[in-house]
Amino acid sequence: MDLDRRARARLLLRTTPGAVDYLFEEVRHLAGDITRRPDGLTLDWDGPLRPLADVRYFSGAAVVLDDVEARAGDPDGVFAALDAPVRFRVAPVGEERWDLRDLLSEKFGWVNDAGDWSVNVERDEREGLIAEIGPLFYPRRFGELTRAPASTTPVVAAVMVRLAKIEPGQTVVDPCCGAGTLLVTAGQMAEPGELLGFDLMDRWVEAARENLDARRVPCVVARGDAAALPLPDGSVDRLVANLPFGKRVGSHAGNTRLYPALLREVRRVLRGKGRAVLLTEDKRLFRESVQRTHGLRVVKEIEFTRPGAHPSAYVVTSRRS
Ligand SMILES: C[S@@+](CC[C@H](N)C(=O)[O-])C[C@H]1O[C@@H](n2cnc3c(N)ncnc32)[C@H](O)[C@@H]1O
């Protein structure tokens, strides 16, 4: 896709509820007529797509097909920026599915290819027909990571890194790093001086190392226990972690031991003005554990919603800061 060519369209940007404000903040100077919805934004875009493609707070983008022929035939539209011929599929959108397929291939020369498409026509509850743009999906813009079963959603990772407010040169630690999504995102969005990751399981340490090496993000990853970190007191500026929720990873009973121990470690290793951004769905236990950890407090909570899960990212700081 040519991201430097003019491309105009009404776009739907989809994100995770909880990330909409961050997405809005990032695009409000770049686009016109922005409308919020719980899972994203619609907006008017007119210009090269590169500045939009660089934004991490949306998972996918689609052209609103209010007038299919006008949009498909627009020489300055988003489809004209795609590699030719445009490869597409039409999802089961209703009766017009096959007419749409025939129109797009016969009138516009697009190639119907369900296995390798850059345009997916589907139906959105609010906008009606939309065309998802394959090259604007998050993994196509920022690269696919090897994932652990409970890996952090990339958009959530981006919001967590933003909440961490990492300053250049700071020491950043993920004590439960899994396949390293947060470490990669922190290394790419900020300029940490030192990036360190720990996980109890060798296979995730290995996966994190692969993900980091593939993106040339300098980081030390090692087997380690978040309840007994191999780090000196007061040596860490920022801590980010997607904790075991007690669903796919760990258990609530396990968390009743892990969370208090991990929070004691957070208090011990953080410097005075340090901050930790910790994601969990075992929320009551987490809040109670923070309250019982003398010296720590929650200063912000952002809830993310996705099918079957409502985790929150908690920003935790020292009471003195
Ligand atoms: C929700 S996953 C993290 C996912 C990770 N952010 C990613 O994107 O792949 C939680 C991780 O914590 C690890 N873990 C559980 N208990 C731990 C402990 N006591 N110390 C270190 N890691 C632990 C698990 O092995 C798992 O990889």
Order of helices and strands: EHEEHEHEHEEEHHEHEHEEHEHEE
Which ions and ligands are bound to the chains? S-adenosylmethionine
Shape: elongated
User: What's the name of the CATH homologous superfamily of the largest domain?
Assistant: Vaccinia Virus protein VP39
Determine the structural class based on helices, strands and strand pairing: alpha/beta
Low-confidence stretches: none
The fold-level CATH name of the largest domain is Rossmann fold
Q: In the residues, how many domains can be counted?
A: 2
Protein name: Ribosomal RNA large subunit methyltransferase K/L-like methyltransferase domain-containing protein
GO molecular function: tRNA (guanine) methyltransferase activity
Domain Ribosomal RNA large subunit methyltransferase K/L-like methyltransferase: 149-303
Pfam families: UPF0020
What can you tell me about this protein's structure?
The chain is α/β, with parallel strands linked by helices. It folds into two domains: 6-142, VC0802-like; 154-318, 3-Layer(aba) Sandwich (Rossmann fold), CATH 3.40.50.150. Helices cover 29% and strands 29% of the residues. It contains ten helices and 15 strands. Strands 2-3-1-4-8-7-5-6 form an eight-stranded mixed β-sheet. Strand 5 (87-90), helix 4 and strand 6 form a beta-alpha-beta unit. The longest helix has 18 residues, at 252-269. The model has no long low-confidence stretch (mean pLDDT 95). Residues 149-303 form the Ribosomal RNA large subunit methyltransferase K/L-like methyltransferase domain. This is Ribosomal RNA large subunit methyltransferase K/L-like methyltransferase domain-containing protein.
